[in-house]
Amino acid sequence: MNWDDLRVFLAVARAESLSGAAKATRLDPATLGRRIARLEDALGVGLFARSPRGYDLTEEGERLLPRAEQAEQALAQGVDDLRGQAGQLAGSVRIGAPDGVANFLLPQVTAAISDANPGLEIQVVALPRVFNLSRREADMAIAVSPPTAGRLTVQKITDYRLHLAATREYLERHGPIRGLSDLRGHRIIGYIADMIFDPELDYLAETGAERVALTSNSVSVQLHWLRAGAGLGIVHDFAIPTAPGLVKVLPTEVSLRRTFYLIRHGDDRRLARLNRFAGLLTEGLRAEVARLEAQS
Length: 296
Prior knowledge:
Blueprint: H1 3-15, H2 18-25, H3 29-43, E1 48-51, E2 54-57, H4 59-84, E3 91-97, H5 99-104, H6 106-116, E4 120-126, E5 140-143, E6 152-167, H7 168-173, E7 188-190, E8 214-215, H8 219-227, E9 232-236, E10 246-248, E11 255-265, H9 272-295
Parallel strand pairs: 3-4, 3-5, 7-8, 7-9
Antiparallel strand pairs: 1-2, 5-11, 6-9, 6-10, 6-11
Helix pairs in contact: 1-2, 1-3, 1-4, 2-3, 6-9
InterPro entries: LysR-type_TF_proteobact-type, LysR_HTH_N, LysR_subst-bd, WH-like_DNA-bd_sf, WH_DNA-bd_sf
GO molecular function: DNA-binding transcription factor activity; sequence-specific DNA binding
Keywords: DNA-binding, Transcription, Transcription regulation
């Protein structure tokens, strides 16, 4: 058995399909199928149960999985040790993040890290959902709630603030807003209710809004509606500097505080390269949130 066979095994186990593993390994599904069959023949056991749903681990495959992950970690740690001698970070790091932090914070922070580490490839996956680090969808993820299950490590990054906002033009076209009761009759912008993937994102529940007229699962879409003068909505304070026409509405009555957390797979805590990157990322995000909120 060689490491490349284990790499293929891990990719299929995490993706639970050949097509999903093909994206991770850049091998075509037919090649992956042959490689898995070859590994099973060499071991004399079936590692996967094939079904229309995909590839599920057998009992033998479940026993092999933690050993293969240990081999993966040992190899990664060895590579990290060698790269660490050069003083700069190299290789690739994939970050999973909600689109708010991905759009308004990570570009500046990761650009600075890249400037200091030109041999490093940084990938940002911006999706409005929770990332599955056990399946290695990302090396680390930013979340608004700490996970309660899984072999994961959690580190608080920073608190951040949100406020109700609208453009000056919108407010001039409509009646004055002196209290929460005045929000009735205004067009409200927010999340699609059944696509809120974390209770911490249910911002409008705190405003008492009964109807949300314009909804999207994307923070960026919501912000563009606000910039277009389409209504009122909750916006991150760190995003307000990107939309100079926005002003806070009822800043005392509607003032929300949330927290960003950095989530990593528990086995990665021994990897010096990822530890260093996580430190730079956390430090950069704290500074960028503080800088932008001071301008809002």
